[in-house]
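Box 4.2: Ligand-aware structure prediction
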Amino acid sequence: MKKIQMVDLQSQYYKIKPDVDNAILSVMNSAMFINGPEVKSFQTELEHYLDSKHVIPCANGTDALQIALMALDLQEGDEVITADFTFAATVEVIELLKLKSVLVDVDYDTFTIDPDKIRAAITSKTRAIIPVHIFGQCANMEEIIKIAKDHNLHIIEDNAQAIGSEFTFSDGTVKKSGTMTKIGTTSFFPSKNLGCYGDGGAIFTDDDELAYKMRGIVNHGMYERYYHDEVGVNSRLDSVQAAVLRKKLPLLDTYNEARKKAADYYDEAFAGHSNILTPKRAQYSTHVFHQYTLRILNGQRNELQKFLTEKEIPAMIYYPVALRKQKAYFQESDDADFVNTDKLLEQVISLPMHTELDEEQLKYITEAVLEFMNK
Ligand SMILES: *Cc1c(COP(=O)(O)O)cnc(C)c1O
């Protein structure tokens, strides 16, 4: 059996190696390393895939969030609501810009931000909401968009983990994750569903003015060469990464399908087990399984992880600590408001999930989990 990895980027690369190697070599030969034609072409192709008017490539998914927030002209101390259960980048950029992060609880079954908790957290200083489409599934955007309309708030969709997933609104409209609101962001970190071979990210918007502004912000606030109209950053997707992404974008749906197939296998193996909850698939969203995350109900999650490690099966705890309890982002809070987050921190375990899992590996993994859980 092939060695089981959390994410197997090497096997994936070998399948497209000649194509990708040629693309990288042609960037080398062109010597157009920054803002070359590959970047522009990738931008256009991603706009087409997402059906988004503007894609602004940048250096990584964290920058994408920061640039999106910078473009909204918020004032120091303005409040931005996001989930307590997510990767730290989301809250990091809010604090970096001297805005105030307001962390709220998530839904127990979907792991995504709880719209009722957003409503309860709104004050006269609230300006924006950052829902995270965590683990590959969209947050409850229909509700969140309603809340934002009622209170005149911006929404930035953090789509770093769910590119390619789709949301179906109650009127039947279907939209790709990251394109449902004014701004969406993503990451092309290697292990993300659409990953390059280094760092990369992008911002999506249909708004011409915002797009113009963000294209300036990523480039030192320059709209005309050497004229700096505002304080910007230096955040670019480099040409080599764009060339890699141009080869991988046409495969994204196939890749997401392979992840879903692995998830189906896991689901079936664990269905009905009294101490294992499989990830819920929401009615309104397709799931692209950036992670496949179980909830272990018998209090033995850490022991299960250890057992799997001994069997050479990697398994990860995403996430072990709530953002509100992290040293850098510590907030006084009432634990009674974060019941779901706190339960999830104790229960979640993510199994290997990538495009290259084969049946032999899936069988070995599920049998090992069940062996431990049925002891
Ligand atoms: C990965 C990730 C980011 C940050 O992306 P980078 O490219 O690593 O900077 C932001 N938000 C979420 C939810 C992520 O998973």
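In the box above, the bound molecule is pyridoxal-5'-phosphate. Residues 145 and 157 are 11 Å apart (CA to CA).
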